[in-house]
Write a structure and sequence with these properties.
The chain is an all-alpha fold and 219 residues long. It has helices at 18-34, 41-48, 52-56, 62-85, 91-103, 117-127, 137-142, 147-163, 170-190, 203-216. It has a single domain, classed as Tetracycline Repressor, domain 2 (Orthogonal Bundle). The chain is built from ten helices and no strands.
């Protein structure tokens, strides 16, 4: 699967050269290892044995690289959602499947020949909100930098409307599932003592229970 990435995020398409692919592969690995705050293009250049300036030919700054990684992740999620619910006629089954896919623990599935979904999802869990908390967020929204993420939200919202046409807040609930699942995984990893998670209780269990309760109790 080739991810749909808005051209304005990058200066030069990293998928079209070996150096660009190396920047993506090692960039994802380094962010996962040291965190986004500590990550710099200088450190990435040292890791790939290339000049820092060569990375700037692909991305204006590390925020744009994070946007690229985020778009990559949501393209993968959108692809899986569409593929896995395509043959499910019952909207309740489609919603359940979508919630499981969005909230499940990270898998080891490969997005391509060198990037694991588990690594990419871990970066999104820790850093996705950073793609929004920027002075440029309105500009980036208008430029459709995060359009794939928004399509995922709207796809889930449409299924919610099918399950319960009388529910008044389908988009809000969809946002709560998509973004809330990332936050709940963060809590499970770092602040487990303020959650109800255990070896047998997962974020998937919580969201399935919550969504069912909300939609079944709507008048």
């Amino acid at each position: 699967m080739k991810p749909e990435i808005y051209g304005g995020i990058f200066l030069k398409d990293p998928e079209r050269s070996e150096l660009g692919k190396k920047i993506l592969k090692e960039g994802v690995s380094l962010i996962d290892k040291i965190g986004f705050e500590a990550f710099t293009f200088k450190k990435l250049g040292e890791r790939i044995q290339s000049n820092e300036s060569s990375i700037y030919r692909y991305f204006e700054n590390k925020h744009k690289l994070l946007l690229y990684i985020s778009s990559w992740y949501w393209s993968w999620i959108e692809f899986r959602l569409i593929f896995e619910i395509a043959n499910l006629e019952d909207p309740n089954h489609r919603l359940t499947k979508a919630i499981i896919l969005l909230t499940e623990d990270t898998s080891l599935e490969l997005l391509d020949d060198h990037i694991k979904e588990s690594t990419l999802k871990q970066i999104i869990i820790s850093n996705f909100v950073k793609t929004f908390n920027m002075n440029e967020v309105n500009h980036e929204n208008n430029e459709d930098f995060i359009k794939t993420y928004k399509r995922v939200i709207l796809l889930i919202a449409e299924i919610i409307k099918e399950v319960n046409p009388n529910y008044s807040y389908p988009e809000n609930l969809s946002c709560s599932i998509v973004e809330g699942s990332l936050h709940q995984h963060f809590l499970k990893q770092h602040f487990k003592n303020i959650t109800n998670y255990s070896e047998s209780v997962t974020p998937t269990d919580f969201f399935l229970n919550m969504v069912k309760a909300i939609l079944n109790n709507t008048e």
